[in-house]
Design a protein that fits this description.
By secondary structure, this protein is mainly alpha-helical. 84% of the residues lie in helices and 0% in strands. The protein has one domain: Hydantoin permease. Keywords: Membrane, Transmembrane, Transmembrane helix. It comes from Sutcliffiella cohnii.
Length: 354
C-alpha cells in the first residue's frame, strides 16, 4: 500500500502544476460553468482514476523505462507514432513553461529577478534528475500531502466566509471566461490534456513496480486524489467567485485573505509544484531519447536542462501555449485508444480463463 500511495502521490504532484494549483485552470474548465462544474469534476475524477489505473498497470506489465513501449502498445504502429511525437514534444514544452513561470513567481512573491528565479528552478531540476527514478518519485510525492492540507484550509475558509447565495455564485461564475463550450467538453478536455502530459511519467512509475496490482492501485489512488482536489478547488472558487473572478491566481488570492503567511505558504506550494512538473516532464522527455542506464544519460540531463532554460526566453512558451488546445483534442483520441486497449486486454483474459 505504501508503494501504491507513493505512485499515486507522485502522479498528483506531476499533474498539479502551476495552472491547476493556482486555480486558473479549474476556474476555466469547471467553475466557469457554475454548479454544473461540480458534475464535471466528478466525471474528471472517474476518468483520471480509470486512466491512472490502466496506464500504471500497462507500465508494470511491460516493465518499461520510457513511455514509448506503452504508447505503441496502445496506439499501434501509426497512431502510436503520432501519440509518441506529440507527447514527447509536449513533455519538453511544459517543462520549459515551468521554468518561465517560476521566474515570474519568484519575482512577484520575493522580488527576485525572473532570470535568477528560472536559474534556481533549472539547477534544482537538473540536480534532482541526476538521482535514480525511485528517489525522483519519492521527491515528487512529498508535495502532495502539503498541497492537500492547504487546499482543505482554503475550502473551509471559503465556505464559512461566503457572502453570496448559491444562486448568485452560480450566475456570477458563468460570467467568467470558459475554456470550452460546455461543462462536459470542459471536463473531458481537461483530463485529456493532463493525461497527454502526465501519461509518460505515470507509465515509467508503473514500470518500477513488478506487481501490476500495486502499480494499478497507485494510478487509481492518484486519479481519485486529483479529482478530489479539482472538486475542492472548484467549490472554493465558486462560493468566493465575487472575490476571485478575473484574478490571475485565484487560490493564492484566497490564501492571502486568510492570512499573509498562508499566502506565502501557497506561493511556496506553487513553486514546489512547478518544480515537480519540470522534474517529471524533463525526466520523461530525456528517457524517451536515451536510456537511464546509458553512460551519457547524466550529460543528456544537463544538456536538456540548459536547452530548456534558454528556450524559456525565446518565445517557446508562446508556441507551447498555442498547441495546448490541440494536445487536448489529440488527448481525447489517446483516451479512446487506452479504453480500446483495456477492453481488448479484458477479452484476452476472459478467453484465457474460459
Amino acid at each position: 500500500m505504501k508503494k501504491s500511495f507513493q505512485i499515486g502521490s507522485a502522479f498528483v504532484g506531476l499533474i498539479v502544476g502551476a495552472g491547476f494549483a493556482s486555480g486558473q485552470e479549474v476556474m476555466q474548465y469547471f467553475t466557469s460553468f457554475g454548479i454544473w462544474g461540480t458534475v464535471g469534476g466528478i466525471i474528471a475524477t472517474i476518468l483520471f482514476a480509470f486512466l491512472g489505473y490502466t496506464l500504471a498497470q500497462l507500465g508494470s506489465q511491460l516493465q518499461t523505462q520510457s513511455h514509448k513501449d506503452v504508447i505503441y502498445h496502445i496506439g499501434g504502429r501509426y497512431f502510436g507514432f503520432i501519440f509518441d511525437i506529440v507527447i514527447t514534444f509536449f513533455l519538453f514544452g511544459v517543462a520549459v513553461v515551468m521554468f518561465a513561470a517560476s521566474g515570474s513567481t519568484f519575482e512577484q512573491m520575493f522580488g527576485i529577478h525572473p532570470m535568477i528565479g528560472s536559474i534556481i528552478m533549472v539547477a534544482a531540476t537538473i540536480l534532482t534528475l541526476l538521482l535514480n527514478i525511485k528517489k525522483i518519485i519519492n521527491i515528487i510525492a512529498v508535495a502532495t500531502p502539503y498541497l492537500m492540507i492547504i487546499v482543505f484550509t482554503i475550502v473551509i475558509y471559503s465556505i464559512f466566509t461566503m457572502d453570496l447565495t448559491l444562486q448568485e455564485s452560480n450566475a456570477l461564475a458563468q460570467e467568467q471566461t470558459a475554456a470550452a463550450s460546455n461543462w462536459i467538453v470542459g471536463s473531458i478536455l481537461y483530463v485529456s490534456y493532463n493525461i497527454a502530459c502526465g501519461a509518460a511519467l505515470l507509465i515509467v512509475m508503473g514500470g518500477t513496480e513488478k506487481d501490476r496490482k500495486v502499480a494499478g492501485m497507485g494510478g487509481l489512488l492518484g486519479g481519485i486524489m486529483l479529482g478530489v482536489l479539482i472538486i475542492l478547488i472548484h467549490i472554493a472558487l465558486l462560493v468566493k467567485v465575487d472575490v476571485v473572478g478575473g484574478v490571475a491566481m485565484p487560490t493564492l488570492e484566497l490564501a492571502s485573505q486568510i492570512h499573509p503567511f498562508v499566502g506565502v505558504l501557497m506561493a511556496i506550494a506553487l513553486l514546489g509544484l512547478m518544480y515537480n512538473t519540470a522534474v517529471g516532464m524533463f525526466y520523461s522527455f530525456t528517457v524517451r531519447l536515451i536510456k537511464p542506464n546509458h553512460k551519457k544519460f547524466k550529460s543528456a540531463i544537463v544538456l536538456t536542462g540548459l536547452v530548456g532554460f534558454f528556450a524559456s526566453f525565446v518565445g517557446f512558451t508562446t508556441l507551447v501555449g498555442k498547441v495546448y488546445s490541440t494536445v487536448g483534442y489529440i488527448g481525447i483520441a489517446f483516451i479512446v485508444a487506452i479504453i480500446i486497449a483495456w477492453a481488448r486486454k479484458g477479452k484476452k483474459e476472459n478467453a484465457y480463463t474460459a
